[in-house]
Amino acid sequence: MATSAGSRNGTIEVYTVGFDPDRVGVGSGPGPGNPVSSRLFIPSPPTTGADNRYLFALCGITVPRNATYHVRGFGQKLLIGQRTVNPLDGSITIHEKPVSTPDWAFPDGNVTWSIRFIKGIRKTAVLKPPVGASPLNAGPSKTQNPYSSDSALFYKDSIVTQYEAPMGGEFPGDALVQPGTFYDMRNPWQGLWQNLLDIPVKGPGEIVMFASVFQTNPQTRPVFTPPPGFNPDGLVPEDQFLLDFPGAIYRHIAGRMLIQVS
Fold it and tell me: What confidence tier does 121 reach under pLDDT thresholds 50, 70, 90?
C-alpha cells in the first residue's frame, strides 16, 4: 500500500507501508493481526544474477489527468541485519543496522534506486493468492498490474522455485531524477528533508520510487578477519556491524517522497 501524510500547504509525504514478518505475532498497533510497518522485507535467498534481482516499488502517487504535481524531495531507508536462533531454546533475536555510509555495499551485493513516471491511467489490480515462487515474497502478486504506486515486491507467478521479477527486473517509465538510476544513500531516511527538488510532472500517470536489490550470500562472500590488536574504530559503521554479525544480509528497505500537489 502507498500511504501519505497530512497535507500542508499543498505538500504531502508518501512513504512505504507494507507487510513485515518481524511484526507477526506481535503486531504494529492496537488492532489485532496488523503486521505492517514503514518498510518492506527483503527475501533472504541470495541473488544469483542480474535477471533475478529483487524489484520493489517503495511508494508512489497517482497524478490525475490535467494535473501537475511537483517532486520536491525523497528519502531512502536500507537496513542490514542478522536473524539468530538460540540452539538451546529456539528463541529468535534480530539485530539490524541502518545503512548510512553513502557508497557502502556488501562485496557481493548492492541496491539501486530510481524515481520514475509511468504515463497513463492506472489499471485495476487483480491480486492473486501466492503460488509457485510467491512463498519467497511477502506481499501480493502484481502479475495483473505489475507497476503501480502501491508498496510491494514485484514477481512473476510461476512454478519455478527461484524469484523472478517481471519485465526482466527493469525499472519502468521515465526517470525523474537524473541519473535515472542511482547507487548511493544520498538522502538517508533520518532527519529533515534535504536537497529539495522541483520536478514538475503532468498527469495522468504514476510517480513511483523503485529499488532493485542484489541480495548478498553470507556463506560465500569474502569475510574480513581482523588481525590481533586491530582497532575497529577505523571501519565505517556497517563494517563494524559485520564484525559482530558476520551473517548479516539486506533485510528491510523503504522510500519516501515529498510531493507538491497544488
Answer: confident
Q: Largest alpha-carbon pair distance within the chain? A: 66
**CA gyration radius for the chain?**
19
104 closest CA partner among 233, 237, 223, 215: 237
SS3 242: helix
pLDDT at 99 over 60: yes
Asked if 145 and 126 count as a contact pair (C-beta separation under 8 A), the reply is yes
State the average pLDDT over residues 227-249.
Answer: 94
**DSSP class of 212:** E
Q: 135-158, pLDDT tens digit by residue? A: 333 344 444 444 444 788 887 766
Residue with cell 544520498: 186
Q: What percent of the chain has pLDDT over 70?
A: 78
pTM for this one?
A: 0.86
Element (H, E) at 244: helix 237-244
Q: Collect all residues with Cβ–Cβ distance below 8 Å to 227 and sequence separation of at least 6.
A: none
Neighbours of 157 (CB within 10 A): 17
C-alpha cell at 134: 510467491
Rounded CA separation 25/40 (Å): 17
Neighbours of 11 (CB within 10 A): 17
Distance of CA 96 to the CA centre of its chain: 15
CA distance 84 to 237: 20
- The whole-angstrom distance between residue 171's C-alpha and the CA centroid of its chain comes to 13
Strand partners, 170: none
